[in-house]
Design goal:
Elements: H1 7-29, E1 47-48, H2 70-73, H3 80-99, H4 107-116, H5 135-138, H6 147-161, E2 166-170, E3 189-193, E4 199-200, E5 204-208, E6 213-220, H7 223-226, H8 232-259, E7 264-265, H9 275-281, E8 286-287, E9 293-294, E10 302-309, E11 319-320, H10 323-330, H11 332-336, H12 368-379, H13 385-389, H14 399-410, H15 415-425, H16 440-443
Parallel strand pairs: 3-5
Antiparallel strand pairs: 1-11, 2-6, 4-5, 6-10, 7-10, 8-9
Helix pairs in contact: 1-14, 1-15, 3-12, 4-8, 6-8
């Protein structure tokens, strides 16, 4: 039983849960299936919105230089000498843990983590036109159809390629176009110009202004593997997801080119634009307390990617699945964060915490420097405890999960109750400092499904 929940309190919470469960049939009876999000095939209780719940002041938003993130620009916020010391400390930690056969850091863990980084196609901003086969090659006109038909076409194709969910955003000059980076991770400027074809030089990349449509997609991570973070073993689901995304990206670009349209994509990891922002506007999820995308289908167990195209697509709308509201009450990711980099504030704020945050939206901003310090000092690899501690980081197959997801979207008064129940049922909580939730040696005996992900859980479910 969680340390912060007495026996008497637990019995009380069970009573609340019983009352909540008894409300489900009554609330469900009042839901109209006409509210169902057609493009993603979601249950009717996930509401579509014209604007996301995260407030945005577009006057403050500007296109962001990706090299100001702590991933690329740590030296903007920390002296280089200290960064070098942290790098040496991280390498020593990994080496010592390997030699001492520490679970999660053993030779088999290191070998599998390295293997997960391989096998992905090389990322390209756009494919070589000389090597693309399409309508001109085959002697037929390019594909045409309504925007709605195009969205269905692209969604079906990309789901078959391995994307978990797919959404679409039409870029507007004064608003959503600002989610496209001003400078890519490799330092090349991203220019948006009124030209016919994309271009790439040693200094810049050109996005034709007619490429108005962002295809935003998620790739699922393994919650069982992430539950072994912050070890080398736990980190491999992230690595594997990124290499899988590279293959999906190249196939999607080839598909779009084959239809007769351009496909402009990430030239490297996390390039082209702000993934969580585009994911929120595409309706793939909501912005969470840990300032990343939280999805109705997979919780935080996804990574988000994007392409741009001139194929006219019907946009998908932002959603309200009760996730953003749940984060107001929960705070579990912040409690689990050993680096103390996440916010405990009751309400999100307009005030950023550093240059690694893009201003202009109201959020729970993280301290990325503290996050990096913890990773390099105590883990030697990335962390992910905020992801694995999230109550929505589950397979969603148990009745409890289904009741919780429904009630979070419809009766948020029970959010704190479901958070406490999650502490009891799913999490060894509170977590011991920097330790994984689950045993790393046990992972090797689990006989997990392909990629360690649950393929039974699907966005096509409408019950």
């Amino acid at each position: 039983m969680p340390e912060n929940l007495t026996r008497r309190e637990f019995i009380g919470e069970l009573g609340k849960l019983g009352a909540a469960a008894s409300l489900v049939p009554m609330v469900a009876a009042g839901e109209s299936m006409e509210t169902k999000a057609f493009s993603l095939g979601r249950p009717g209780w996930i509401k579509e919105l014209d604007e996301p719940l995260t407030e945005v002041d577009w006057q403050q938003v500007a296109r962001y230089n990706e090299r100001h993130t702590t991933r690329r620009g740590f030296n903007l916020y920390v002296e280089q000498e200290r960064i070098d010391q942290l790098g040496e400390l991280s390498s020593e930690l990994l080496s010592d843990n390997l030699k001492n056969d520490v679970p999660g850091y053993t030779l088999k863990d290191r070998a599998l983590q390295r293997a997960a980084r391989g096998g992905g196609a090389s990322r390209q901003f756009f494919l070589d036109p000389e090597k693309v086969q399409g309508p001109d090659t085959w002697g037929v006109p390019k594909w045409t159809g309504t925007p709605e038909e195009a969205s269905q076409l692209v969604s079906a194709a990309m789901r078959h390629m391995g994307a978990a969910t797919v959404g679409f955003v039409e870029l507007q000059t004064e608003t959503t176009e600002k989610f496209i980076y001003s400078v890519d991770p490799d330092g090349k400027e991203l220019r948006i110009e009124d030209v016919e074809l994309p271009e790439e030089t040693e200094e810049y990349r050109v996005i034709p202004k007619k490429a108005r449509y962002a295809i935003v997609y998620t790739v699922q991570m393994s919650e069982e593997t992430m539950a072994r973070c912050p070890t080398v073993l736990g980190s491999l689901t992230t690595s594997l997801t990124y290499t899988r995304s590279q293959n999906i990206q190249e196939r999607a670009q080839t598909f779009l080119n084959g239809l007769g349209y351009m496909g402009l994509a990430e030239s490297s990891t996390n390039a082209l634009g702000i993934s969580p922002a585009l994911g929120v506007y595409a309706g793939l999820g909501e912005l969470s307390r840990y300032n990343r995308l939280l999805t109705p289908e997979y919780g935080p167990m996804v990574r988000v990617f994007k392409l741009l195209t001139d194929l006219p697509l019907a946009p998908t709308k932002p959603i309200d699945a009760g996730l953003y509201k749940f984060c107001h009450e929960c705070k579990k990711c912040a409690e689990a964060c050993p680096g103390k980099s996440l916010s405990f504030d009751d309400e999100p704020s307009w005030e950023t915490r550093g240059g690694w945050n893009n201003p202009g939206h109201r959020a729970w901003f993280e301290d990325s420097v503290l996050c990096r310090f913890y990773q390099r000092t105590y883990t030697g690899t990335n962390c992910g405890l905020c992801f694995s501690a999230c109550p929505f980081a589950t397979k969603n197959l148990a009745s409890f999960n289904r009741v919780r997801n429904y009630m979070a979207a419809t009766v948020p008064a029970f959010d704190s109750t479901f958070k406490k129940m999650d502490d009891l049922l799913y999490t060894n909580f509170p977590l011991e400092f920097g330790k994984p939730q689950k045993d790393c040696e046990e992972w090797w005996t689990l006989n997990l499904p392909d990629y360690g992900i649950d393929t039974v859980q699907t966005v096509r479910e409408t019950t």
